[in-house]
Specification:
2 copies of one chain form a homodimer. Chain A is an alpha+beta fold. Chain A folds into 2 domains: about 60 residues, Arc Repressor Mutant, subunit A; about 130 residues, CBS-domain (Roll), CATH 3.10.580.10. Helices cover about 40% and strands about 20% of the residues of chain A. Chain A has 8 helices and 9 strands. The first copy, chain A, has a 4-stranded mixed sheet. At the A-B interface, strand 1, helix 3, helix 4, helix 5 and helix 6 of A face strand 1, helix 3, helix 4, helix 5 and helix 6 of B. Chains A, B: Pfam families: CBS (PF00571), HTH_11 (PF08279). Chains A, B: Keywords: CBS domain, Repeat. Chains A, B: It comes from Mesobacillus selenatarsenatis (strain DSM 18680 / JCM 14380 / FERM P-15431 / SF-1).
Protein backbone atom coordinates (compact mmCIF):
# COMPACT_ATOMS: atom_id res chain seq x y z
CA UNK A 1 0.00 0.00 0.00
CA UNK A 2 1.34 3.39 -0.94
CA UNK A 3 0.42 6.82 0.38
CA UNK A 4 1.48 10.38 -0.05
CA UNK A 5 2.12 12.50 3.00
CA UNK A 6 2.73 16.16 3.42
CA UNK A 7 5.56 17.10 5.78
CA UNK A 8 4.85 19.54 8.58
CA UNK A 9 7.05 22.52 9.40
CA UNK A 10 9.05 20.69 12.04
CA UNK A 11 9.77 17.84 9.66
CA UNK A 12 10.88 20.29 6.98
CA UNK A 13 13.11 21.89 9.62
CA UNK A 14 14.64 18.54 10.61
CA UNK A 15 15.22 17.78 6.95
CA UNK A 16 17.10 21.07 6.56
CA UNK A 17 19.21 20.38 9.66
CA UNK A 18 20.20 16.95 8.37
CA UNK A 19 20.91 18.35 4.91
CA UNK A 20 23.23 20.94 6.45
CA UNK A 21 24.82 18.83 9.19
CA UNK A 22 24.38 15.15 8.32
CA UNK A 23 25.35 12.59 9.32
CA UNK A 24 23.92 13.76 12.61
CA UNK A 25 22.51 11.81 15.58
CA UNK A 26 18.94 12.11 16.78
CA UNK A 27 20.23 13.65 20.01
CA UNK A 28 22.03 16.40 18.13
CA UNK A 29 18.99 17.17 16.01
CA UNK A 30 16.91 17.39 19.21
CA UNK A 31 19.47 19.77 20.76
CA UNK A 32 19.34 22.08 17.77
CA UNK A 33 15.56 22.25 18.05
CA UNK A 34 15.50 22.51 21.87
CA UNK A 35 13.30 19.44 21.96
CA UNK A 36 13.66 16.01 23.51
CA UNK A 37 14.70 12.99 21.49
CA UNK A 38 11.35 11.37 22.37
CA UNK A 39 9.38 14.27 20.90
CA UNK A 40 11.25 13.95 17.63
CA UNK A 41 10.87 10.20 17.39
CA UNK A 42 7.68 10.17 15.26
CA UNK A 43 9.06 12.88 12.97
CA UNK A 44 12.31 11.01 12.42
CA UNK A 45 10.37 7.81 11.81
CA UNK A 46 8.27 9.53 9.17
CA UNK A 47 11.27 11.10 7.48
CA UNK A 48 13.08 7.77 7.43
CA UNK A 49 10.13 5.71 6.25
CA UNK A 50 9.28 8.15 3.54
CA UNK A 51 12.80 7.89 2.20
CA UNK A 52 13.96 11.46 2.87
CA UNK A 53 16.42 10.38 5.52
CA UNK A 54 18.40 7.25 6.10
CA UNK A 55 19.92 6.23 9.42
CA UNK A 56 23.06 4.23 10.17
CA UNK A 57 23.81 2.83 13.64
CA UNK A 58 26.51 4.81 15.45
CA UNK A 59 26.63 7.33 12.59
CA UNK A 60 23.28 9.04 12.64
CA UNK A 61 20.79 10.41 10.14
CA UNK A 62 21.77 11.52 6.67
CA UNK A 63 19.86 13.01 3.77
CA UNK A 64 19.19 10.59 0.94
CA UNK A 65 19.16 13.33 -1.64
CA UNK A 66 15.79 12.31 -2.95
CA UNK A 67 13.51 15.11 -4.09
CA UNK A 68 9.97 15.63 -2.88
CA UNK A 69 8.07 13.73 -5.51
CA UNK A 70 10.66 11.07 -6.13
CA UNK A 71 8.63 8.21 -4.71
CA UNK A 72 5.57 9.29 -6.67
CA UNK A 73 7.74 9.05 -9.74
CA UNK A 74 9.06 5.72 -8.48
CA UNK A 75 5.50 4.45 -8.50
CA UNK A 76 4.97 5.70 -12.02
CA UNK A 77 8.13 3.85 -12.94
CA UNK A 78 6.57 0.54 -12.01
CA UNK A 79 4.01 0.80 -14.84
CA UNK A 80 5.01 -1.17 -17.93
CA UNK A 81 4.02 -0.86 -21.58
CA UNK A 82 2.31 -4.29 -21.27
CA UNK A 83 -0.07 -2.85 -18.64
CA UNK A 84 -1.67 -0.47 -21.15
CA UNK A 85 -0.95 -1.85 -24.62
CA UNK A 86 -3.50 -2.16 -27.42
CA UNK A 87 -3.83 -4.68 -30.22
CA UNK A 88 -1.95 -3.70 -33.40
CA UNK A 89 -3.76 -3.32 -36.73
CA UNK A 90 -1.65 -4.38 -39.73
CA UNK A 91 -1.73 -4.15 -43.51
CA UNK A 92 0.55 -5.91 -46.04
CA UNK A 93 3.14 -3.75 -47.75
CA UNK A 94 1.55 -4.03 -51.21
CA UNK A 95 -1.88 -2.79 -50.09
CA UNK A 96 -3.07 0.45 -51.69
CA UNK A 97 -3.23 3.73 -49.80
CA UNK A 98 -6.97 3.75 -50.44
CA UNK A 99 -7.45 0.35 -48.82
CA UNK A 100 -5.22 1.38 -45.93
CA UNK A 101 -7.43 4.42 -45.29
CA UNK A 102 -10.54 2.19 -45.39
CA UNK A 103 -8.86 -0.21 -42.92
CA UNK A 104 -8.03 2.72 -40.65
CA UNK A 105 -11.70 3.72 -40.56
CA UNK A 106 -13.01 0.18 -40.18
CA UNK A 107 -10.64 -0.55 -37.30
CA UNK A 108 -10.97 2.98 -35.90
CA UNK A 109 -7.26 3.43 -35.21
CA UNK A 110 -4.91 6.33 -35.83
CA UNK A 111 -1.91 4.25 -36.86
CA UNK A 112 -1.48 1.17 -39.06
CA UNK A 113 1.57 -1.06 -39.05
CA UNK A 114 2.88 -2.54 -42.27
CA UNK A 115 4.25 -6.09 -42.25
CA UNK A 116 6.04 -8.22 -44.83
CA UNK A 117 5.15 -11.79 -45.86
CA UNK A 118 7.00 -13.17 -42.83
CA UNK A 119 4.84 -10.88 -40.63
CA UNK A 120 7.85 -8.76 -39.72
CA UNK A 121 7.39 -5.03 -39.12
CA UNK A 122 8.48 -3.00 -42.15
CA UNK A 123 6.53 0.25 -41.86
CA UNK A 124 4.23 2.60 -40.00
CA UNK A 125 1.35 4.62 -41.46
CA UNK A 126 -0.14 7.51 -39.51
CA UNK A 127 -3.33 9.42 -40.32
CA UNK A 128 -1.02 12.26 -41.22
CA UNK A 129 0.84 10.12 -43.81
CA UNK A 130 -2.45 9.00 -45.36
CA UNK A 131 -3.92 12.51 -45.34
CA UNK A 132 -0.78 13.85 -47.05
CA UNK A 133 -1.05 11.18 -49.74
CA UNK A 134 -4.76 11.81 -50.19
CA UNK A 135 -4.27 15.41 -51.26
CA UNK A 136 -1.41 14.46 -53.58
CA UNK A 137 -1.76 13.94 -57.29
CA UNK A 138 -1.45 10.17 -57.26
CA UNK A 139 -4.33 7.73 -57.66
CA UNK A 140 -4.89 6.25 -54.16
CA UNK A 141 -6.28 2.93 -55.34
CA UNK A 142 -3.07 2.02 -57.16
CA UNK A 143 -0.47 3.71 -54.93
CA UNK A 144 1.05 1.07 -52.59
CA UNK A 145 1.56 2.05 -48.97
CA UNK A 146 5.25 1.15 -49.01
CA UNK A 147 5.85 4.31 -51.08
CA UNK A 148 4.53 6.60 -48.35
CA UNK A 149 5.10 4.69 -45.09
CA UNK A 150 7.77 5.43 -42.50
CA UNK A 151 10.18 2.50 -42.81
CA UNK A 152 12.97 0.87 -40.85
CA UNK A 153 15.36 2.10 -39.48
CA UNK A 154 13.28 5.27 -38.92
CA UNK A 155 10.62 3.49 -36.87
CA UNK A 156 10.77 4.01 -33.11
CA UNK A 157 9.74 0.81 -31.34
CA UNK A 158 9.17 -0.31 -27.78
CA UNK A 159 8.93 -3.63 -25.98
CA UNK A 160 6.28 -5.00 -23.57
CA UNK A 161 8.56 -4.78 -20.57
CA UNK A 162 9.68 -1.21 -21.25
CA UNK A 163 8.54 1.39 -18.76
CA UNK A 164 5.39 3.17 -19.86
CA UNK A 165 7.02 6.44 -18.91
CA UNK A 166 9.90 5.81 -21.36
CA UNK A 167 7.46 5.02 -24.13
CA UNK A 168 5.56 8.22 -23.29
CA UNK A 169 8.79 10.20 -23.57
CA UNK A 170 9.48 8.70 -27.01
CA UNK A 171 5.99 9.66 -28.20
CA UNK A 172 6.63 13.24 -27.09
CA UNK A 173 10.23 13.57 -28.25
CA UNK A 174 9.69 11.98 -31.68
CA UNK A 175 6.31 13.72 -32.08
CA UNK A 176 4.53 10.52 -33.05
CA UNK A 177 1.08 9.18 -32.22
CA UNK A 178 1.91 5.50 -31.70
CA UNK A 179 4.75 3.08 -31.11
CA UNK A 180 4.79 -0.50 -32.36
CA UNK A 181 5.42 -2.94 -29.52
CA UNK A 182 7.80 -5.58 -30.82
CA UNK A 183 9.58 -8.78 -29.90
CA UNK A 184 13.04 -9.35 -31.32
CA UNK A 185 13.15 -12.20 -33.85
CA UNK A 186 16.06 -13.59 -35.91
CA UNK A 187 14.71 -12.05 -39.08
CA UNK A 188 13.51 -8.71 -37.70
CA UNK A 189 10.81 -7.41 -35.39
CA UNK A 190 7.74 -9.43 -34.56
CA UNK A 191 4.82 -7.04 -33.94
CA UNK A 192 2.99 -7.80 -30.69
CA UNK A 193 1.18 -4.59 -29.80
CA UNK A 194 0.46 -0.92 -30.24
CA UNK A 195 1.03 1.88 -27.78
CA UNK A 196 -0.62 5.26 -28.35
CA UNK A 197 -1.16 8.57 -26.60
CA UNK A 198 -4.65 7.24 -25.89
CA UNK A 199 -3.06 4.45 -23.83
CA UNK A 200 -0.98 7.00 -21.93
CA UNK A 201 -4.07 9.14 -21.32
CA UNK A 202 -5.84 6.05 -19.95
CA UNK A 203 -2.89 5.40 -17.63
CA UNK A 204 -3.09 9.01 -16.43
CA UNK A 205 -6.81 8.65 -15.68
CA UNK A 206 -6.23 5.32 -13.93
CA UNK A 207 -3.60 6.90 -11.66
CA UNK A 208 -6.16 9.38 -10.42
CA UNK A 209 -8.80 6.72 -9.89
CA UNK A 210 -6.68 4.11 -8.14
CA UNK B 1 6.54 18.97 0.11
CA UNK B 2 4.79 15.72 -0.72
CA UNK B 3 6.06 12.17 -0.48
CA UNK B 4 4.78 8.68 -0.96
CA UNK B 5 5.47 6.09 1.69
CA UNK B 6 4.96 2.38 1.78
CA UNK B 7 3.37 1.01 4.94
CA UNK B 8 5.13 -1.80 6.78
CA UNK B 9 3.38 -4.95 8.02
CA UNK B 10 2.76 -3.57 11.50
CA UNK B 11 1.18 -0.43 10.08
CA UNK B 12 -1.03 -2.49 7.79
CA UNK B 13 -1.99 -4.53 10.86
CA UNK B 14 -2.85 -1.44 12.88
CA UNK B 15 -4.91 -0.15 9.98
CA UNK B 16 -6.88 -3.41 9.94
CA UNK B 17 -7.45 -3.25 13.69
CA UNK B 18 -8.79 0.28 13.46
CA UNK B 19 -10.95 -0.61 10.46
CA UNK B 20 -12.47 -3.48 12.44
CA UNK B 21 -12.69 -1.85 15.88
CA UNK B 22 -12.53 1.90 15.45
CA UNK B 23 -12.89 4.27 17.14
CA UNK B 24 -10.25 2.69 19.32
CA UNK B 25 -7.65 4.21 21.66
CA UNK B 26 -3.92 3.83 21.16
CA UNK B 27 -3.77 1.82 24.37
CA UNK B 28 -6.29 -0.70 23.06
CA UNK B 29 -4.46 -1.03 19.76
CA UNK B 30 -1.24 -1.64 21.68
CA UNK B 31 -2.97 -4.32 23.79
CA UNK B 32 -4.20 -6.14 20.73
CA UNK B 33 -0.66 -6.22 19.37
CA UNK B 34 1.01 -7.06 22.71
CA UNK B 35 3.16 -3.96 22.33
CA UNK B 36 3.60 -0.83 24.38
CA UNK B 37 1.90 2.42 23.45
CA UNK B 38 5.35 3.99 23.09
CA UNK B 39 6.41 1.43 20.50
CA UNK B 40 3.35 2.17 18.41
CA UNK B 41 3.71 5.92 18.61
CA UNK B 42 5.67 6.41 15.37
CA UNK B 43 3.39 4.01 13.49
CA UNK B 44 0.28 5.83 14.65
CA UNK B 45 1.88 9.15 13.77
CA UNK B 46 2.61 7.91 10.26
CA UNK B 47 -0.88 6.51 9.78
CA UNK B 48 -2.42 9.74 11.02
CA UNK B 49 -0.17 12.04 9.01
CA UNK B 50 -0.65 10.06 5.87
CA UNK B 51 -4.39 10.41 6.21
CA UNK B 52 -5.27 6.75 6.76
CA UNK B 53 -6.36 7.35 10.32
CA UNK B 54 -7.78 10.27 12.14
CA UNK B 55 -7.72 10.75 15.90
CA UNK B 56 -10.19 12.52 18.19
CA UNK B 57 -9.35 13.37 21.80
CA UNK B 58 -11.08 11.05 24.29
CA UNK B 59 -12.49 8.98 21.40
CA UNK B 60 -9.50 7.37 19.76
CA UNK B 61 -8.37 6.48 16.27
CA UNK B 62 -10.75 5.85 13.43
CA UNK B 63 -10.31 4.88 9.83
CA UNK B 64 -10.80 7.73 7.37
CA UNK B 65 -11.96 5.38 4.64
CA UNK B 66 -9.43 6.71 2.18
CA UNK B 67 -7.94 4.15 -0.17
CA UNK B 68 -4.24 3.56 -0.58
CA UNK B 69 -3.55 5.84 -3.49
CA UNK B 70 -6.07 8.49 -2.65
CA UNK B 71 -3.55 11.19 -1.85
CA UNK B 72 -1.59 10.42 -5.01
CA UNK B 73 -4.82 10.97 -6.84
CA UNK B 74 -5.44 14.10 -4.76
CA UNK B 75 -2.14 15.45 -6.10
CA UNK B 76 -3.16 14.64 -9.65
CA UNK B 77 -6.35 16.51 -8.96
CA UNK B 78 -4.43 19.71 -8.38
CA UNK B 79 -3.31 19.85 -12.03
CA UNK B 80 -5.46 22.13 -14.17
CA UNK B 81 -6.08 22.31 -17.89
CA UNK B 82 -4.31 25.71 -17.93
CA UNK B 83 -1.08 24.03 -16.73
CA UNK B 84 -0.75 22.00 -19.95
CA UNK B 85 -2.83 23.79 -22.60
CA UNK B 86 -1.69 24.47 -26.16
CA UNK B 87 -2.49 27.31 -28.52
CA UNK B 88 -5.56 26.68 -30.71
CA UNK B 89 -5.32 26.74 -34.51
CA UNK B 90 -8.44 28.09 -36.19
CA UNK B 91 -9.98 28.32 -39.64
CA UNK B 92 -13.07 30.30 -40.75
CA UNK B 93 -16.22 28.30 -41.46
CA UNK B 94 -16.21 29.02 -45.19
CA UNK B 95 -12.66 27.76 -45.79
CA UNK B 96 -12.33 24.75 -48.12
CA UNK B 97 -11.48 21.27 -46.87
CA UNK B 98 -8.36 21.42 -49.03
CA UNK B 99 -7.16 24.62 -47.37
CA UNK B 100 -7.98 23.20 -43.94
CA UNK B 101 -5.79 20.17 -44.68
CA UNK B 102 -2.97 22.46 -45.80
CA UNK B 103 -3.39 24.51 -42.58
CA UNK B 104 -3.27 21.32 -40.54
CA UNK B 105 0.08 20.42 -42.14
CA UNK B 106 1.53 23.92 -41.92
CA UNK B 107 0.60 24.24 -38.24
CA UNK B 108 1.38 20.58 -37.53
CA UNK B 109 -1.69 19.95 -35.41
CA UNK B 110 -4.17 17.07 -35.34
CA UNK B 111 -7.26 19.18 -34.74
CA UNK B 112 -8.49 22.50 -36.16
CA UNK B 113 -11.19 24.64 -34.63
CA UNK B 114 -13.70 26.46 -36.81
CA UNK B 115 -14.84 29.93 -35.79
CA UNK B 116 -17.49 32.30 -37.09
CA UNK B 117 -17.02 35.98 -37.97
CA UNK B 118 -17.38 36.96 -34.30
CA UNK B 119 -14.57 34.50 -33.50
CA UNK B 120 -16.97 32.19 -31.66
CA UNK B 121 -16.40 28.44 -31.77
CA UNK B 122 -18.69 26.75 -34.27
CA UNK B 123 -16.91 23.54 -35.24
CA UNK B 124 -14.10 21.04 -34.79
CA UNK B 125 -12.15 19.29 -37.56
CA UNK B 126 -10.08 16.22 -36.76
CA UNK B 127 -7.58 14.50 -39.04
CA UNK B 128 -10.13 11.72 -39.24
CA UNK B 129 -12.83 14.12 -40.53
CA UNK B 130 -10.48 15.50 -43.17
CA UNK B 131 -9.23 12.04 -44.20
CA UNK B 132 -12.83 10.83 -44.59
CA UNK B 133 -13.64 13.82 -46.78
CA UNK B 134 -10.48 13.35 -48.82
CA UNK B 135 -11.48 9.88 -50.02
CA UNK B 136 -15.02 11.02 -50.79
CA UNK B 137 -16.21 12.01 -54.22
CA UNK B 138 -16.40 15.73 -53.60
CA UNK B 139 -13.90 18.28 -54.86
CA UNK B 140 -11.86 19.34 -51.80
CA UNK B 141 -11.01 22.81 -53.04
CA UNK B 142 -14.68 23.83 -53.22
CA UNK B 143 -16.14 21.82 -50.33
CA UNK B 144 -16.44 24.14 -47.28
CA UNK B 145 -15.44 22.73 -43.90
CA UNK B 146 -18.78 23.53 -42.30
CA UNK B 147 -20.28 20.62 -44.28
CA UNK B 148 -17.99 18.05 -42.63
CA UNK B 149 -17.09 19.54 -39.25
CA UNK B 150 -18.45 18.45 -35.88
CA UNK B 151 -20.68 21.32 -34.81
CA UNK B 152 -22.33 22.63 -31.66
CA UNK B 153 -23.96 21.18 -29.58
CA UNK B 154 -21.93 18.03 -30.35
CA UNK B 155 -18.61 19.62 -29.40
CA UNK B 156 -17.17 18.65 -26.03
CA UNK B 157 -15.43 21.65 -24.49
CA UNK B 158 -13.37 22.35 -21.39
CA UNK B 159 -12.32 25.45 -19.48
CA UNK B 160 -8.88 26.57 -18.26
CA UNK B 161 -9.69 25.95 -14.62
CA UNK B 162 -11.07 22.47 -15.20
CA UNK B 163 -9.07 19.60 -13.74
CA UNK B 164 -6.72 18.05 -16.26
CA UNK B 165 -7.89 14.64 -15.12
CA UNK B 166 -11.51 15.48 -16.03
CA UNK B 167 -10.44 16.67 -19.46
CA UNK B 168 -8.44 13.44 -19.88
CA UNK B 169 -11.55 11.41 -19.02
CA UNK B 170 -13.57 13.31 -21.63
CA UNK B 171 -10.93 12.58 -24.28
CA UNK B 172 -11.15 8.87 -23.45
CA UNK B 173 -14.91 8.59 -23.02
CA UNK B 174 -15.81 10.59 -26.11
CA UNK B 175 -12.96 9.02 -28.11
CA UNK B 176 -11.68 12.35 -29.36
CA UNK B 177 -8.17 13.68 -29.89
CA UNK B 178 -8.58 17.24 -28.63
CA UNK B 179 -10.85 19.50 -26.64
CA UNK B 180 -11.31 23.21 -27.34
CA UNK B 181 -10.63 25.27 -24.22
CA UNK B 182 -13.26 27.98 -24.06
CA UNK B 183 -14.42 30.99 -22.11
CA UNK B 184 -18.11 31.65 -21.87
CA UNK B 185 -19.21 34.76 -23.75
CA UNK B 186 -22.64 36.32 -24.20
CA UNK B 187 -22.84 35.23 -27.83
CA UNK B 188 -21.24 31.76 -27.49
CA UNK B 189 -17.87 30.27 -26.71
CA UNK B 190 -14.67 32.26 -27.00
CA UNK B 191 -11.83 29.88 -27.96
CA UNK B 192 -8.79 30.31 -25.73
CA UNK B 193 -6.86 27.05 -26.05
CA UNK B 194 -6.49 23.47 -27.19
CA UNK B 195 -6.05 20.39 -25.06
CA UNK B 196 -4.89 17.14 -26.67
CA UNK B 197 -3.74 13.66 -25.72
CA UNK B 198 -0.24 15.00 -26.38
CA UNK B 199 -0.75 17.49 -23.52
CA UNK B 200 -1.92 14.66 -21.25
CA UNK B 201 1.09 12.55 -22.25
CA UNK B 202 3.35 15.50 -21.38
CA UNK B 203 1.68 15.80 -17.97
CA UNK B 204 2.26 12.08 -17.41
CA UNK B 205 5.96 12.44 -18.26
CA UNK B 206 6.25 15.53 -16.05
CA UNK B 207 4.78 13.64 -13.07
CA UNK B 208 7.55 11.08 -13.33
CA UNK B 209 10.22 13.72 -13.65
CA UNK B 210 9.09 16.02 -10.85
Amino acid sequence: MVRTIELNKRQEHILQIVKDNGPITGEHIAEKLNLTRATLRPDLAILTMSGYLDARPRVGYFYTGKSGNQLLSENLKKILVRDYQSIPVVVPENVSVYDAIVTMFLEDVGTLFVVDKASRLVGVLSRKDLLRASIGKQELTTLPVNIIMTRMPNITVCRRDDLLIDAAKELIEKQIDALPIIKDADDGYELVGRLTKTNITKAFVALAEE
